Amino acid sequence: MYFWRIDKLKQDLVSAPLSERHGLYYLLISMPMAAAVSLFPAEAAHAPDYVGAALDWAITVAGLLYAFVRNGGDAGRHFVQRFLAIGIVTTIRWVATIGPALIVVVVAYAYLLKRTNEEAFALFYGLWWPAEIFLWWQVGRHIRDVARAHYVKNEDGDRGVPPRS
């Protein structure tokens, strides 16, 4: 794994693709880095903001590891490609369905019941984290479906062992 030597990385990638494990390492670095941006809000933050951001980060790492296992772990194939493609499509579908529902519930709660912004945000995050976990579950389920349908033959010509259920 390389962090600075791009020429060596490129040479290695020309000779062979990343192993599944090395692809996971790069994702384990990039995804939490993206999620860590929320740890540094643009405005003054309070302790609950940092707790929420840390929970988002932890869910991201756990979800990524879950998806890797659903692809077959070390024995799986094409994890990074599957994760990126399935993750993007699943996220778009999730945003189009869960996102509006979440907003409607929170806005209705705030305005109809005359709740404060703090109470509305508490409800939002109380619903957000289970919805985020649901998204990761969906990504893992779809990756497992693809992995099961396309698991490779082993050297004996027998069908390999499909990823765990």
What are the main properties of this structure?
72% helix; elongated; mainly alpha; 165 residues
What features would you describe in this structure?
There is one protein chain. This protein has 165 residues and is an all-alpha fold. Helices cover 72% and strands 0% of the residues. The protein has 5 helices and no strands. It has helices spanning 6-15, 20-36, 47-70, 79-112, 117-149. α2 (20-36) packs antiparallel against α3 (47-70) and α4 (79-112) packs antiparallel against α5 (117-149). The longest helix is centred in the middle third of the chain and has 34 residues, at 79-112. The chain is elongated and about 60 Å long.
Write the layout of secondary structure elements.
Elements: H1 6-15, H2 20-36, H3 47-70, H4 79-112, H5 117-149
